[in-house]
Structures are given as structure tokens and as C-alpha cells.
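User: Fold this; C-alpha cells only.

Assistant: Input:
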Amino acid sequence: MSATASRPARPETAGPGRFARPLLGAFLVAAAVDLAGLLAGLDTVHLVAKPLLMPLLAAYAAVRGGPRLLIAALLFGWGGDVFLLADNDLAFLLGMGSFAVGHVCYLTLFGRGRAASARTRASLAAGIAYAVVLAVFLVLIWSDLPAELRVPVAGYSLLLTAMAWRAGVLGPYAAAGGALFLLSDALIATGIAEWPRLPAPDFWVMLTYIAAQLLLALGVLRAGRAGRS
């Protein structure tokens, strides 16, 4: 038997895993197209590219053997993406609800196994820092939010902040992803409150959001691979 025949196939190049790189590449291309469209003010490009992002990332996670909760979180993120393409309060609430379910999926995932007890001291310090940031942000923005959105935004923000905090148990990739997700949604909230915004605000919202979901997915996948080694 030859050495080639006896060598086990690498997971990335055998079975469904062989589609991982093309799917990740397609996700990155769709992200670049979406961001370029936002910078150029091409709404149609954004309407086409944005709904492709999370299904491609979820497919990438699936062929990499990612847990079902990760795939569910990404697909609920896709639901939120689609709802938020409509510019009205009902769509905003539905989108926020879809993202909230995704955050519950992430929180459940982060609480599993060894991750639940990892980095306890650092996690506690990060939790306190996140709680302070959340409290200050809500105090500052509260009166500028539409009255009917204040309670939903506060509840969602609490859930999102908990997710961002707990993401740190999986290491730096997931921790950065959680922080960027919080930043992205904070940028959305400042727009709703009609605070001064950066030029091309939708570009910055999407850039931080895309990076957040990618880093969260990579963090979960890396943690899963480390747990199997």
C-alpha cells in the first residue's frame, strides 16, 4: 500500500469540508460587494448582497462541522438582516426579535462544556465592564429613543451585552466578535436616536456586523476543533 493511500484525508479537503474555502470566499466576496455598494450609495446592491451573507457563513460553518446552535444563530441573524431591509418600526421590532433569538443560541452555546467555567476571573471583570457600558449608554440614549422602542431596545441591549460578555469564554476571536456586534447595534441605536453619525453610517454598521458574525463563527469553530484535539 502506498504512503498516499494510507494517509487519512484532511477534514478540510474530504467530504463536505472541501466546500469550506469556496463558501468562505463567497461570503467575503458578498461582504465586499455589500460594503462597496453602501459606500457608493447603490441601494440595489445592498438589497441583493446583504441577504446572501449569513446563509453563506452558516453554510461555511456547517461544512466545517460547526454546532447546530452556531448555524441557528447565524440563520436567525439572516432573518434579522432581511427584516431590517424594510424601513419601518414593525420590521425593526421583528428584526430585533430575530437577532434576539440568535443571541439566545449563542448564549446557550457559550454556556456548554468547558467553556462555561473557563477564564472565570477575566470573565467576571469583563462582565462588570460590559454592565457599566450598557448602563451608561442606556442612560444617555433613553430620552432620545422613540417612546415605543425604549423598552424593547433596553431588553434587547441587555441580551446582546450578555452575549458579548459570554463570548469571551471561547477566546479572542469570539470575544472580539461579541464586542463588535455590540458596537454595530449601538451604531444602529444612535441612528434611531438621531445622534450625530459618522459619514456613510450604514457602511460602518455593516462592517462591524459582518466582522462580528465572522469572528464569532471562527471562534466557535476554533474552540470546537481544540476540544476535539
